[in-house]
Amino acid sequence: MAQTTFDSTETQTQRTFWSVFFRSGFLTFVYILLILLAISMIFPYIWMLANSFKTRTAFFTDPYSIIPQAMTLNTYQEALTIGRMSLYLMNSALYTITVLVAQLFINSLAAYSFARVEFPGRDTLFLAVLATLMLPGSVTLIPTFLIAHALGLTNTFMGVVLPGFVSAFGIFLLRQFFLNIPRELEDAARIDGSGFFGTYWRIMLPLAQPAMITLGVFTFLGEWNSFIWPLIVLSDSDKYPVTVGIALFRDFNTINWPNVFAASTIVSLPVVILFIVAQNSIVGGISLSGLKG
User: Fold this and answer.
1) Which of 7-34 are b and which e, b meaning 16 or more Cβ less than 10 Å from the residue's Cβ?
2) 8 Å CB contact between 163 and 144
3) CATH architecture under which domain 82-289 falls
4) pLDDT one-digit tens code per residue, 204-255
5) What residues does each domain of the chain span?
6) Rounded to two decimals, what is the model's pTM?
7) Cα gap 263→107, rounded to integer Å
8) What CA–CA distance (Å, rounded) separates 194 from 188?
């Protein structure tokens, strides 16, 4: 009887060992795979950053090394002066901030209305808004340009930013978040004498901060990286954003790749910094917005 108990205990120990062994091996494989995938995604940025410090001769001599033998900052100076990247950066900042503020206000107000206000055809209208998410941007590009031309907005500041004031994705994201907020908070605000806009401004917006930050990050990325629409609607190079400016900068310098890489590095820095600072809010905003629909 004692021998049987010992054999059973030994068998259980072996099973536990092999279970832990295979589980550890699987986790190790997953971690290695994720590390390799992360390296493959971050390597182009590291390669661009390394080559931005090379001279043109050094780049064409050894374009694939990520450790420059002789580093120079002249590429960044030329990008900001000869390439006029400082002007393009200011243009992009102005366009992006304007669209960001407009989207946060308009989308949040529309989302709050869809989430809380009862009016005829509300659900049908909301489905129509969601349907626009299925349309690729290339489909609406020409109609949008024709409307802007008819309104006299081509080659103007408003012509660049006005089409980005409203986002169906932003309305959907914020509506889902507002649906998660208890109605008792609004009822308490109305008892205290707060109206519709007061409840929206003082109660709902502060509670929706994670979703607002998430939408703000996505809006910033979309507008900062916008290329096709500014290229079409603008004809004055002094009004170009950085995305269009880099393309012109490359042509003006007969494809001086280190200068192009320096300009691209400057342009990508705000995006990288913003993502690092707001990554926790992005995850929290998306997860909370999908709890109820």
Assistant:
1) eeeeeeeeeeeeeeeeeeeeeeeeeeee
2) yes
3) Orthogonal Bundle (1.10)
4) 888 888 889 889 989 999 999 999 999 999 999 899 999 998 887 765 546 7
5) 82-289
6) 0.82
7) 33
8) 9
